[in-house]
Write a structure and sequence with these properties.
Distance between the termini: 24 Å
CATH architecture of the largest domain: 3-Layer(aba) Sandwich
Largest sheet: 3 strands, antiparallel
Helix content: 25-40%
Strand order of the largest sheet: 2-1-3
Strand content: 15-25%
Radius of gyration: 17 Å
Shape: globular
Number of strands: 5
CATH superfamily of the largest domain: P-loop containing nucleotide triphosphate hydrolases
Structural class: alpha+beta
């Protein structure tokens, strides 16, 4: 379970989160919706261990997110793919970072998403890049998927 207990976060004078409390149960799909500046991306980055609360506590299965990173597959908003790589090269590169990489799942999703391993990242469409980012994130067996899209 992912839990926020009285979490607050500021960026200078801007309040991103103010005494927020909520729980995300494992095995359920949960979405964060709201206007720009509501704290959605900040919350997701806290779960991924990229931001820390100014006050309160964020836990993933009772532990700090920075300790639980291996349990969280995180898809950032930014495009983090190297344009000179093929999808296959990007997958090989990504897989070296994660013990839970699932090659069979990768191959199944590659086909499902209508992508080809020899496609060059810098030459594919924006939609295909989005699919590739999703492919590389979801090809893990992480207990939590943290997908951040603006």
């Amino acid at each position: 379970m992912i839990e926020f207990k009285n979490v607050s976060k500021r960026f200078g004078t801007t309040v991103a989160l103010d005494q927020v409390n909520f729980k995300f149960e494992q095995g359920k799909i949960t979405g964060l919706f709201g206007p720009n500046g509501a704290g959605k991306s900040t919350s997701i980055k806290m779960i991924a261990g990229l931001n820390r609360a100014d006050s309160g506590e964020v836990t993933v299965d009772g532990k700090a997110p920075r300790i639980s990173r291996a349990n969280i597959a995180y898809l950032p908003e930014i495009d983090h793919l190297y344009p000179w790589m093929t999808i296959k090269q990007a997958a090989r590169f990504t897989s070296t970072f994660y013990a839970d990489w699932d090659e069979a799942k990768y191959n199944e999703l590659l086909n499902f998403l209508n992508l080809h391993p020899k496609m060059k990242i810098g030459k594919i469409s924006k939609g295909q890049r989005a699919k590739t980012k999703l492919l590389l994130t979801v090809s893990r067996r992480a207990p939590y998927m943290n997908l951040c899209q603006g």
